[in-house]
Design brief:
single chain, 552 residues, alpha/beta, eight-stranded parallel β-barrel, 20 strands, 17% strand
């Protein structure tokens, strides 16, 4: 069973129940070599990992029936959940394995693994499309057969089974594979063949692969991303709906003296200060000079421990961000440090309508959002607001649209400006004819009656940055296109630049509506509330009562 506890974007914190224990997701499974452990399992546990993954093919090849007799937990001396791969990695690397899919499935169940992976056919790089499709069909055939055999081998379903999605760079085949797998009742689904793209820092392709799979997999099931345990890709993957990772990167990097950091990877010779910029036990105890002077084996072990600490810290940071509702901000922070990651983030922006489908509309606790750059227009909550405004919102039956500048106070319908304007309209007997809206730099036209709903009243913006001020222009035009037929007269009282921009929008729409525009100034070019209420509004509406006209 998979229980979802919290969400942000498509990321979620959850509990995966296995026969040996509960795995809290997002979770990273350190890859364990069953024959040689550079970092002991006790050390891995002490860092905070409560789950590991090992290779059932290698266990069968080297331990055979011994592991069947004692069980994989006793063999490894690990009393927490264990996931086992089936030899697909060896199949990808060497082209064949000395075991058949039925045999390795039964072996995983017999040794008592908590999570078992069927023996799929991974997609190799630079493989012809036709071959990839045939390999995916073979994986699907094996998946169907595995579920049938499981009823014989494990009728109580004590071992959770993983259905791997394949297709590699052929995103449409990935989508096909995921759709077909979704028709089969696996407890966990996985996306394979991303390792090469990760090694090449092709994060955009990984985004496309995850999106293609997630849109076609059951939303209530956990999804594993094979071989992607690196701090750069993990936040993006979680934001797109990945729940679990595995990786041997911590030890593979250590063998090359490569040191993981939250935003980059360094070789030890590239560290120019006395200590590695990290506070883990290894970096707190040993200087760079001391690490360099150690034997190769000891340095490898210590760097591997450091890398595990970095990976664990990244998982915990992601969980905290989901709890806070600031996962989007974290993606921005991470991608700002790496151009290749930034391209992946921009790819998410371009796919914002898809991300919106995977993002919860509401959550138990409301967090304000910070809008700091033009990319924030793609935030799912802004996309959701725009869609609802266009498709669901119906303006009141009032012939006059009054557009005012957005006040600094939020929500707008509790601001001093709004209260004074309402009082003036009441005194002029015009309140039942006028629909009051505000022009926001971020959300475009905001009707007063919905200006207190999320996220219209729960955001902060860098309003003096031009790129941020431009965000609302598209949304303003969207509102006018869909709602302008409700009005006969539009009155706008705005600073000069905003007024001219609105005028150009209305002309481009070529609609039959009267437009009255007034340029307003105040101290430091701020709009004067008193001038609106004491002079402009009475003048405008007195004129309207006589004869509507266009003014500037």
């Amino acid at each position: 069973m998979f229980e979802i506890l919290d969400k942000d974007l498509a990321g979620r914190i959850g509990k995966l129940y296995t026969k040996t224990g509960i795995i809290e997701t997002p979770a990273l499974f350190p890859v364990i070599n069953p024959q040689k452990q550079t970092v002991t399992l006790e050390e891995i546990k002490s860092i905070g990992f409560r789950q590991i993954i090992t290779n059932s093919y290698l266990i069968k090849k080297n331990f055979g029936d011994l592991c069947t007799e004692v069980g994989v937990h006793n063999l490894l001396q690990w009393d927490l959940p264990i996931m086992t791969d089936s030899g697909a990695y060896q199949l990808m690397e060497y082209g064949e394995v000395e075991v058949d899919p039925d045999e390795i499935l039964k072996y995983q169940i017999d040794i008592g693994t908590d999570i078992g992976v069927i023996l799929d056919v991974p997609t190799r790089a630079n493989t012809d499309r036709e071959i990839v499709f045939l390999e995916v069909e073979e994986t699907l055939r094996r998946a169907r057969r595995a579920l049938l055999l499981r009823e014989e081998y494990d009728p109580e379903h004590r071992t959770l089974l993983v259905g791997p999605v394949q297709g590699g760079e052929h995103v449409d085949i990935v989508a096909y594979s995921a759709k077909k797998l979704s028709e089969m009742d696996f407890e966990i689904y996985a996306i394979g063949s991303v390792t090469l793209h990760l090694e090449q820092y092709n994060f955009e392709k990984i985004v496309d692969m995850i999106m293609a799979a997630k849109l076609n997999l059951p939303l209530g099931k956990p999804v594993h991303l094979f071989g992607a345990g690196h701090p750069l890709i993990m936040p993006i993957a979680v934001a797109l709906g990945i729940d679990m990772f595995d990786s041997a990167s911590y030890i593979l990097y250590a063998r090359d003296d490569r040191i993981m950091l939250p935003d980059r990877t360094l070789r030890i010779e590239d560290v120019k200060i006395e200590y590695i910029p990290c506070c883990c036990p290894v970096c707190s105890k040993y200087s760079v000079k001391e690490l360099k002077e150690m034997s190769k084996d000891e340095r490898e072990r210590l760097i591997a421990i450091h890398n595990l600490h970095i990976l664990k810290r990244e998982i915990e940071e992601i969980k905290q961000r989901i709890k806070e509702g600031t996962l989007w901000e974290y993606l921005q922070e991470k991608s700002a440090a790496d151009a290749r990651l930034r391209r992946a983030f921009i790819r998410i922006v371009k796919l914002r309508k898809i991300l919106e489908k995977l993002t919860p509309t509401t959550r138990g606790d409301i967090h304000g959002i910070d809008i700091t750059c033009i990319l924030d227009i793609a935030r799912p909550h802004i996309v959701q607001h725009t869609r609802k405004l266009v498709n669901r919102y119906v303006p009141p039956h009032k012939e006059i649209l009054l557009i005012l500048p957005d006040p600094e106070e939020k929500p707008y319908n509790r601001s001093i400006m709004f209260i004074k304007v309402v009082n003036v309209l009441k005194n002029l007997n015009m309140l039942n004819r006028v629909h009051i809206c505000f022009l926001s730099d971020i959300f475009g036209i905001v009707p007063h009656e919905i200006s207190d709903i999320y996220p219209l009243a729960q955001y902060e913006d860098a309003r003096y940055l031009k790129c941020v001020r431009n965000i609302g222009k598209t949304l303003t035009l969207t509102y006018l296109k869909s709602k302008i037929s409700n009005y006969k007269i539009i009155i706008a009282m705005l600073p000069k630049n905003e007024l001219e921009e609105l005028r150009r929008m209305l002309r481009s729409l070529k609609v039959n509506v009267k437009f009255i525009g007034f340029t307003l100034y105040g101290p430091d070019d701020k709009v004067s509330i008193d001038s609106i209420c004491s002079m402009v509004l009475p003048h405008v509406f007195s004129a309207l009562l006589r004869e509507p006209y266009e003014a500037a």
